[in-house]
Amino acid sequence: MARLVLLLVFVFSHSVGPFAGPVAAQDLLPSIQRIADRGVLRIAIVDGDRPPMVERVEDGSLDGFDIELGNDIARALGVRPEFVNAGPGNREVVDFVASGGADIGLSYLSESVELAKRVIFSDPYMIESYTVLLNRAEALQSFEDCPSISDLRRLAREEGHVGALKSGPFAALIHRGANAPMPRQYDSLGAMLSALQEGEIVASIQGELSAVPPFTSSCRRSAPADVRPPQTAAPGRRGCRPRVCRSCALA
Q1: How far apart are CA 131 and CA 2, in angstroms?
Q2: Distance CA 165, CA 51 (A)
Q3: Maximum Cα–Cα distance for the chain, whole Å?
Q4: What's residue 110's pLDDT?
């Protein structure tokens, strides 16, 4: 099964081990020394929300796991974090770091051969499986079981009824290989789920973390942390890892 490996990207001149606290000047590599002299760690993030990794609160502040990680890295270096909006997607974040606009990049990033030619990726700090959400009424006409990636590619090619987030990495799972179809892409999770509920698309592909809000909003007795509701879950929505169907389905 394909998994999303989450990393941060950076353009330090050498790899650096974990920091136990603010590091002394004599311990710093030249690229780190420049950050220390500046007193600011510039962190590129996506221009938008990627909950629960990056979220913009109503008061304009930033929240989420990647934001906390960026704060921790800056704290370990003894500098102030500065989060910079790089653009809507992974490529823009990587481009921003590669061009020198930021020291590191965060925001639900996943490594690829193409992107690794331009920046250095850290070791993974989280590995996430993808999930598929289905429109129950429409999916019964297309699938007898939870769809595989091949099933989703076929559906995307023949009917264009598969959705993915425009700024996320999961569209690439569908659009891979010669003559591979491109899924419909949405600017936000809310817009994609609305399209799914209205029957504009039959299936959506996203990470496990993105699938948590639909479960918690309608499958009250599901197990959102595992993204696999038990057989006793309340009816209403269905999510699955391909070939691992459990209860609940989008009406």
Answers
A1: 10
A2: 12
A3: 66
A4: 73
The domain in which residue 106 lies consists of 3-124
b (16+ CB within 10 A) / e for 85-113 = ebbebbebbbbbbbeeebbbbbbbbbbee
Interval 35-43 mean pLDDT: 94
Mean pLDDT, range 25-38, rounded to an integer: 81
Lowest mean pLDDT among 34-48, 76-90, 236-250: 236-250
Same domain, 66 and 94: yes
Q: In the structure, what pLDDT confidence band is assigned to residue 83 with cuts at 50, 70 and 90?
A: very high
Closest residue by Cα to residue 83 from 108, 105, 52, 98: 105
CA dist 91 and 93 (Å) reads 5
Query: Same domain for 65 and 139?
Result: no
Residues 73 and 117 in one domain: yes
The whole-angstrom separation of Cα 136 and Cα 132 is: 12
Q: 53 near 66, Cβ under 8 Å? A: yes
pTM for this model (two decimals): 0.67
Q: Within this chain, do residues 22 and 118 fall inside the same structural domain, yes or no?
A: yes
Instruction: Please compute the mean of the pLDDT values over residues 10-15 and round it to a whole number.
Output: 45
Rounded CA-CA distance 106/109 in Å is 6
Residue 118 and residue 8 share a domain: yes
